[in-house]
What we know:
The protein has helices spanning 13-35, 45-56, 87-94, 120-133, 192-195, 211-218; strands spanning 5-10, 38-42, 69-73, 75-77, 144-150, 174-177, 187-190, 198-205, 236-242.
Amino acid sequence: MSTPARVVVHPDKQVLADLSGARLLVALVDAQAARGEAHVVLTGGSMGSAILASLGASPGRDAVDWGRLHVWWGDERFLPSGDPDRNETQNREALLGSVPLDPRRVHAIPGPDGPDGDDVAAAASRYAAELASAAPDGEPSPTFDVMLLGVGPDGHIASLFPGHPDQLTSGVAAAAVHDSPKPPPTRITLTFETLRRSDRVWFLVAGADKAEAVRNGVHGAEPSASSAAQVQGLQETLWLVDADAASGLH
Ligand code: 6PG
């Protein structure tokens, strides 16, 4: 089950961040109204933090029951806790450090300072086990309410790089990535099958250098050209873009 891509164009990157932050706020409040808990998957890059900063500046932000929000990451650079290049560190600075989250529901991806040390494969397995432990019996992960995904100019999402041998890893919820084309070379990523276990998938993309990646993603390019095109939400697939990123669409 998946949904067709819909595109929403915003005049510029700041408006994109602000309206996406508002959209996320409403989605989390709605999910918690329905089920109490909610699950969100965060992303790195400039848009991943910009949406959180905008949500944090909203007067409505405390309509979210922060203590009952599960926070996950789509990928992480395999760096120690607190490293400024970790997605987690950047997201904490943007918002997470200033809202009353329950630490037991903040699911950071382990780094080399974690229980498995430098063994990135073991750390990826540990994250997969954590996903399963928060899932209904027998399922590999929760169904996420919102999956946020930044997109690289090469069409990558999370740490799934088009054409890279680790891109198509399957049968596990999270995987190690070696020799990433973008530094740092060692990472942990959710796999395609886990990314797809999301009610809402939102791609957040700004800038003219992303125009081709947006076109390929929206038009359903092959995995060798676009990782983004391989992921749709169960209820909604939105490309939330600025005018520059949309410039390759007709
Ligand atoms: C990384 C990056 C990367 C980023 C996208 C989108 O893991 O090396 O963080 O995956 O999320 O390139 O970045 P922007 O939101 O800045 O365009």
